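idk why but the lab printer keeps eating my pages so im just putting this in chat instead. protein + uridine 5'-triphosphate:
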Amino acid sequence: MEADNDIQTTPRGFHCKLCDVTIPNKPSLEDHVRGKKHEHLCRLRAKRKSQEENSVFVSGFRAATSRTELEEYFEHFGPVTEVIMDKERGVYAIVEFAEAGGTQSALTQLEHSLHGLKLRVKPRERKEFKLTGRGKHDPKKAQVGMGKLSYELCQAGSVNEQMQKVVETFQLSEGDRKARELLVQLLQEVFSEFLPDCQIIPFGSSVNTFGVHGCDLDLVLDLENTKAFQCRARTSDQTGEDRSEDGRSEDSILSDIDLASASAAELLDLVAAILRKCVPGVHKVQCVSTARLPLVKFNYRPLALQGDITINNRLAVRNTRFLQLCSALDSRVRPLVYTVRFWAKQKQLAGNPFGGGPLLNNYALTLLVVFYLQSVEPPVLPTVEKLRGMACEEEVCVIDGWDCTFPSQPFSVPPSKNTDDLCTLLFGFFRFYSKFDFPSVVVSLRETCALPIADFVGDEEMPDEPEGCVAKLRPSAGPKLGPVTILDPFELQHNVAGNLSERTHRSLRHELTEAEKYCRSLQFQRKSAKGKSWGLVRLFTPHGEAAAAACDAPYRHLEICIPFRAASLPDGHRTDPSEGGDACRTVWFGRLCSVVELVFRDVLKCTPVEGHARLDPSEAGQGATVEEAVEGQSVEGCSPQVSAHAGVKRPLSVDEGPSSSPQGKRQRLDPWAEHPESVHWSWAQTHPVWAGRRKVRKDLLKMSDEASQPEGGSSTLESRVTQHIMEKQANPRDLLEFSVDGTVVGVGESMKAVIKFCPTNDVSGHFQDFFHFLESFLPKMVETMLAKLE
Ligand code: UTP
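predcted complex ->
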């Protein structure tokens, strides 16, 4: 049965899920299933399954109970092969019997006791970490409000639960992943038209099990088979034979370029041209030939996501498979990686604009977690060298001369004997790296320990190859050394943290030490009885925010964070990554503020109140509709109180505002021209515009026969929804007044706009409902409108 499920029929023949290979036809499939690799993996899978079925989970014994005592007790039910103890706390154990009979006898006995204590004996659950997200697909759900997350984390019962919550909150939903798969299919179809036999392969966070909402879609365009196709086609042309064997000929694009000798820039131009001209929904296509691996960036409007295409980058596809394997080997890997990644983002240690910059990238952070999990005692994950030894002959894989061998299936690797819980491992991570002497050692996932950096200094060659290495294994030069050196597990010449500045290294050490200190405190480990923040909430306090303010009153701030998205910058500001810093910050925040104002003023029909710079509608473009403002690529009547310098608010008076043009006419205000660092608005809302929106939207769509739109998907529709709700209530009353303060914090990709709300008049107590609605509505609406600004 299981064997039947292993084989899938595909348009190209068959795919064996067990061995992860594509097989072109039935006879080869028959050979494959009789082959060594398939049989070996089938046997291993059966072995792991029986190990799991033959084990029981035991708890309730005294902390001092030894392994032998447990073994002796359970021998009464059948021969015991192994007892794995929870090392740190001695509160549970896994007992493995030689046969299923032992498990059954132990489980059927109603009561167990040892040294006078009642034991709990349960079937062993192998918790597969579910990849599926909860909830419906919402491609635009890219933001997670920190306020809401803090609240939910505070409600959890333990740090372990909090870490699981972090995964649930950020992971890609099933719908997100399906939508990405469809986009990959679309690209595959289009590119195959022009580049026969090419392959579009996703890698990175979309597929490595560590993806978050809205993360980039990294793709490799593999042209190896196309090269072979072109070569065959050319040979048959020269020999005068009829076309290529499969009847296809080089089409116009292929006849213009020789794939074997084309430069990287030529290939990128070709990819960019296909994307621009032939893929519907793609825009903002840009070649980045200066990156370590040249790439083409693009935006895909229907999913509001950014994609990157590199060419023939097989190592990245392979290291993605490696991360997938690590994730599948132990269910603790994902929560740990998600937690560390979010911590690093909050502390501004990770996330570089446009992939370049002085911070850690997510790949490097993930490798740090994997290295730590290889280094704990007993290890949670095996080293790359050990994994290599567990692979069978058919799994040997060499790419560009680098040995990339590891087993294709998790069950080829014996389960870890480490029983630490997530909380212990997280604390351990900070303890391990706070004492780690980054400048003197090289983090290498191949070995069991960090290597002295002296082995790499001034040495053109790498240190000795481990025995049995099958491929190159000797890089002509060592990796680029830096304050932090993390060797890629396969491309041993590449320091994945080679871009890190000395300053980031100092911050990293500081934050690791602070985190380690905090993890030792009771606030970390114990839920606060007084409703104060605890556990991960404090750990996630953003860099630079006064800890007390952010921590002791987690619900005090009603704030919505809107993270930076390079895709929402105008083209000209995305061309030079080195300008990513201040220029991006001011341009992006300026655009965002303009759009936020439009959402309140025109979409939600709030009215400015005293203290809010009022503009004469005839002069300031109050008459302009949202669509005019957005589609016309300018925003008029933008009237917040604006400060040109961070933190200092300067009311923008009517005289200074856009209406004060010498001509006394409407003036186009480029939304990004002001470059504000903070803004302030005061608004009043007279109607409960948040109540019943979904139904009104549905009714309006039905009446007009328009295509269905998700919440926040169209500013025109949302304005009409608001209008409709307002019209239904003839006598408006002053429902509530509130102030809104926006600031931009962070740098690079971890930059975000923090929009804080404060009810200034809320006698009828509606503000909480309004804010709750804004938490999901505002980020989506802002993103939709930003995407329309060119
Ligand atoms: P990222 O650092 O972007 O990681 O590298 P990510 O997991 O995709 O995280 P996001 O996109 O920031 O959410 C993307 C992929 O690029 C390859 C790896 O395959 C990685 O998963 N990569 C990255 C390298 O091979 N080497 C590097 O130095 C960096």
